[in-house]
Amino acid sequence: MDLDNASDFMATHARMLDRRRFELLTGAGDGDRDALLAALNAYRNPDGGYGHGLEPDLRSRTSQPGPALHAFEVFAELAPDTAPEAAALCDWLESVALPDGGLPFGLRVPDPAGSAPFWTGADPEASSLQITAVVAAMAQRVAVHDKAVAAHPWLDRATRYCLDTVRAKEEAKDELHALELAFTMWLADAVRDTEVIDLLGKHIPPSGLVHVQGGLADEMMRPLDFAPHPDRLARALFTPEVVAGELRRLDERQQDDGGWRVDFASYSPAAELDWRGYATVGAVAILTREPI
Question: Among the residues of 191-268, which ranges form H helices?
Fold first, then answer.
């Protein structure tokens, strides 16, 4: 990894939010936590939710469940500091959760320009295991250092909905989508539910490669997508050799301009660059904590 080249890429191409995340991650510019929170709050709405393209393929100004994931990512990165906006986001999520505890994949989008059709066409009355799991998983990471999030009733309901749904699908032999598989693994790992980790692990081959149904022809969830953290239970699903190979692959995917690319389709020119900045922060985070 060429960290200087990555820094140049971020300065040249990334949105301010990811530049601030990169600075905190690498210690550049003293890693200003207040500046990072201010950058996140540019996407915040008065109702406590987030929109305005915080999720790059969802450009709507409206508060949506998808951007909540990215807000919780920032709250996790602010640790050990806490922000009242995290508990307020839980309040908003509770207000839009459905009776079973799940979140809809998306709410009504009145301003669909530049947004992916799977966001604009989402059913606001149907619970989504995929979005509920990924938002709850990241919120559980925040809950480790934020007591207000840990005690919030929304998080408990959302977590129980996801884990119960996984068990029910396993009993009914219903196939999980690759993204559902990855995100429920994140959640089970965060709450150390070994039973669900084992259930999910049965559907992941030793290679860790699972094709993303409906994605690009070569779009895969990979071992580091299922188990990005070396100190978590899910990492035991993969041999050290598989993990080492994935780390080498990630390192080699740094582009000549210093950034990384995602392997899924983007739905606007702005989103393509936003995802590259986001992916670069993610790659540097992994390679920093697990140098090859």
Answer: 194-201, 223-226, 240-252
